[in-house]
Amino acid sequence: MKAQLTLILSLFTVVQIMAQGPNPPEIDSKQEVKKVIETFFDGFHKQDSVIIKSTVADKVVLQTTGRNKEGKTMFRTEEFSQLITSITSIPDSISFQEKLTSFSIQVDRTMANAWVGYEFWLNGNFSHCGINSFQLVNFDGEWKIIYLIDTRGRAGCLEE
Length: 160
Fold this sequence. Notes:
Mean pLDDT: 88
Radius of gyration: 21 Å
Strand content: 35-45%
Largest sheet: 6 strands, mixed
Number of strands: 6
Oligomer: single chain
Shape: globular
């Protein structure tokens, strides 16, 4: 009787584990998420809307937050099409680079979060820094950005 109970409990545990579904190795998923973000910025720097669009879902939410000159918190939502237009319309006479300084990526099944530090440089001069927080979903094996919010500021950016 004790052996049957142990067998039943073991089978129940196996069934419960299998019911969770396959979960790809976390390391591989983190690398895939990082690659999507790097591809996003590759398109950003090349001003290539096709590359950028390849990294996002059909509907993506873009937001930003920071402090204005008076120190008040500002928060706004942007249309994705506005972002694409603003990036692709930057004239060749202006150089810009968003240097990614750190990555912290968490993955659970079909959802990922990437907390990405950055410095923004305009015409070779430091402009601002902050964090890009990406939310991604794995749509049948392909990670896509569904949400991006960033902070922007100058304080505490560059190591002195």
